[in-house]
Every structure is written in C-alpha cells, then in structure tokens.
C-alpha cells in the first residue's frame, strides 16, 4: 500500500459546495433538519459517497452511512458528525467531520488499502435540534437512548411531524436503528470556542464533553392596557421572563465558574407595543462539565420560577427538551489522537468540549473520541464561523492517521 494522503483541495471545495446548499434570499445559511435544503445537502453527500465507491445505507431515523469496503459492514470504525445546521450558520459545523471522513476513505482506497476492519462514514440526523428536539437526535436513537417511534413523532413549531418530514424528503430508510454498531467512533469537528486559537495549537484531543440541559418555559400572565394598568396591578409575563433571564445570568452562570446559561429563543404574546404580555415562551440552555453543578443550576431555576409565580402573580410551566450528562471519551482513542498530532509535529492538547456532539451519544455504545481544530475568534453558530484551510487540512490528516491505525487493529 502507498502512503495514503488526503485530497485537501477536494475537501475544501466540497465544504464550500455543501455550504452553498440552504441559502436564504438574504444569503444566510439555514439548512435545518428535514427541510428541502437538508434533502439537497443529503443528496449531494450521498452522491459523493457513491462516486467514491461507498455503499450508502439509510436507517429509519434518516441517519446516512457510507460503508467501505462494501463486502463488510460489521463492527466498523465509524467516522461521524452531521450536516444539518442552525439558523444563519457557518459552513464548517458538522459538515467538516463528515466530509473529512469521506476524504479519509478516498485516501485509503487510493492508496490500495485493504482494511481488516471496515469504515462507516456517518451523517446523523438532526444534530442541532433547532427544529425538532432533542438535539443529537439521530445519534441518540442510534445509541438506543431515544425510542425510534418517539423520535418519529416529534413535532416542530409549525406542527410538522418528524416522521412525515423524513418521508417527504425521501430519507425514511429501512435500516433498523443502531443496526451498524461501531467498533469505535471518531468525530472531527471545529472547536467552536476560543481555546485552541488562544493557545496557538492546531489540534484538540477531546477527552470529555460537558452536560446539557434544555427546557422550554411558558409564563402565563394577563394582557392589559399599557397606558391604564397600574404597575402593582399587572401580571406581566414579559417582566417575569426578564427576571428569569437576569437570574440565570447573575445567580446561576455568574455564581458558578463552569456553568453556562443561555436564553436563545423568546417570544411574547400578543406581541403588541401597547399590550402587557399575557404570555412569554422561552428556552433555557444550561451547560456544565460537572453533573452536580448542572443539577444545582436546574434546581436554582426551578426554585426561582416557583417564587416568581408568587411575586408576579403569573403561572409557570416547564417542558424538558433534552438532558445529557457530561461524558468522558475513551482514553486509548484520545491517546491515539494526541500521538498522531505529535507525529505530525502539530501543537495539541487534551480538552473538553463546550458544544454538544454526536460523539457524546455514540460514546454510550462504543469507545469514542473527538478531534478539534481551531475556530477563528472562537466563533460558531454564526456566518462568521471560519477555520483556516491549513488547520482543516491538519485535522483531516490526523483523522486519517488514527483511522489507518484502527482499521489494522
Ligand atoms: O447545542 C449543541 O451544542 C449542539 O451543537 N446541538
Ligand atoms: Mn456540530
Ligand atoms: Mn452546531
Ligand atoms: Mn454540536
């Protein structure tokens, strides 16, 4: 076998081409799960996989698997991530890991490799969870953490049912959930944070991932006239929501170094300039590497909401959307990543992931690890998301080296 080498130019070109799919009239990238744009992106990926000689299989939650060599499917080295995006997204989040996985298979095939263990390149459905919750849904179903029928019954804010959307875009596959059980799992991903860039390092050997808690909070007050209702007589759902946001920032995130709190979505009803809001519906995203602190943040929010009902005369309802404990990845796999970076003379460090990833789900059923590359300015989930081509190439090279070791194991 010759020395396999990644075709960096083709990887970068595909990132741009996939990144062009799902642009709105204003040019924003929003390829939300199971939309027509997602179908277009899926079709593009599946076409590249087939051109590269992989067998493409789709399971019942729409996870796409590109398998090579075709003769074997059992017990593969799985390289995965996702190609769905958030709203007004960057082009690297998720797509980089899937396309680099495809590039690794192409490099090994090109070099005449005859692996003792097959490779499966996976694009998991609905990692972002923007349209349907929970996030990391496809990999969670794959890992047996969410019943397939419950996932197919998920409903978005327009009342669309996930299973019907999957059928509509032609990706309701026949493969049973979890059928392709990985021997081990690797995910290459942009860091989406500031750590590697600040340290001037090229590679993150990700050994852990923080816990995530997602809730939707609905506060019911009373609509009333903005000009005639005395402050003391108000049951102002808008004010109550504002107090929750301040509490999360000052008393939860502010009080604990490792805890992060975000209210990313908020809407008032009836949403009129001269009407006191009767209802406020918002999401709460809590993160912490320590499970006890994450639990304490959830408890602090629950107590605050109880007190608010009393003080503001409102009613409060919460709905749990997702809850994942912190994860530690496989030390041996993490060691392979660090060693491969070292052999290439790439500056690297072990680190934890602030973002959620499919790897945290697959880690439930197989040894898993992640490889990070730097994000410029630590920016992600934003059109300014960027990673330098040299860093993208280096990450793919490290992925290739580790996979080349694993397929011989
Ligand atoms: O929210 C997350 O961290 C993941 O990207 N869905
Ligand atoms: Mn991602
Ligand atoms: Mn993301
Ligand atoms: Mn993610």
UniProtKB/TrEMBL annotation:
InterPro entries: Amidase_Cbmase (IPR010158), Bact_exopeptidase_dim_dom (IPR036264), Peptidase_M20 (IPR002933), Peptidase_M20_dimer (IPR011650). Pfam families: M20_dimer, Peptidase_M20. Residues 209-308 form the Peptidase M20 dimerisation domain. Keywords: Hydrolase. Its EC number is 3.5.1.87. GO terms for molecular function: N-carbamoyl-L-amino-acid hydrolase activity. Belongs to the peptidase M20 family. NCBIfam families: hydantase, PRK09290.1-5. This is N-carbamoyl-L-amino-acid hydrolase. It comes from Inquilinus ginsengisoli.
């Amino acid at each position: 076998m010759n020395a396999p080498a990644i075709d960096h130019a083709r990887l970068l070109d595909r990132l741009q081409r996939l990144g062009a799919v799902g642009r709105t009239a204003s040019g924003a990238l929003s390829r939300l799960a199971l939309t027509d744009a997602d179908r277009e992106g899926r079709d593009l990926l599946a076409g590249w996989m087939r051109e590269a000689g992989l067998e493409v299989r789709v399971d019942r939650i729409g996870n796409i698997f590109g398998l090579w060599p075709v003769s074997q499917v059992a017990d593969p080295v799985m390289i995965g991530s996702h190609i769905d995006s958030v709203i007004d997204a960057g082009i690297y989040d998720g797509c980089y890991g899937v396309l680099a996985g495809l590039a690794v298979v192409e490099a090994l095939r090109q070099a005449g490799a005859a692996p003792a263990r097959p490779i499966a390149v996976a694009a998991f459905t609905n990692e972002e969870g923007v349209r349907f919750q929970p996030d990391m849904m496809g990999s969670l179903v794959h890992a047996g953490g969410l019943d397939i029928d419950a996932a197919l019954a998920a409903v978005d804010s327009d009342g669309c049912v996930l299973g019907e959307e999957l059928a509509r875009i032609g990706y309701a596959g026949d493969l049973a959930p979890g059928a392709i059980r990985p021997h081990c799992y690797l995910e290459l991903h942009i860091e989406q944070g500031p750590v590697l860039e600040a340290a001037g390092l090229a590679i993150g050997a990700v050994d852990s991932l923080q816990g995530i808690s997602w809730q939707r909070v609905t506060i019911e007050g009373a609509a009333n006239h903005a000009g005639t209702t005395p402050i003391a007589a108000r049951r102002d759902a808008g004010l109550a929501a504002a107090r929750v946001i301040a509490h999360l920032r000052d008393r939860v995130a502010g009080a604990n170094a490792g805890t992060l709190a975000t209210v990313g979505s908020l809407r008032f009803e009836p949403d009129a300039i001269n009407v006191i809001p009767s209802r406020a519906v918002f999401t709460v995203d809590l993160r912490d590497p320590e499970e006890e602190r994450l639990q304490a943040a959830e408890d602090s929010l629950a107590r605050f909401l109880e007190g608010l009902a009393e003080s503001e005369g409102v009613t409060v309802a919460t709905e749990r959307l997702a809850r994942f404990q912190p994860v530690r990845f496989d030390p041996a796999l993490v060691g392979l990543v660090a060693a491969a970076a070292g052999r290439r003379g790439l500056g690297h460090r072990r680190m934890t992931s602030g973002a959620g990833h499919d790897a945290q789900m697959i880690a439930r059923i197989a040894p898993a690890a992640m490889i990070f590359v730097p994000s410029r300015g630590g920016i992600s989930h934003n059109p300014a998301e960027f990673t330098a081509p040299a860093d993208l190439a280096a990450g793919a090279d490290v992925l290739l080296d580790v996979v080349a070791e694993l397929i011989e194991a």
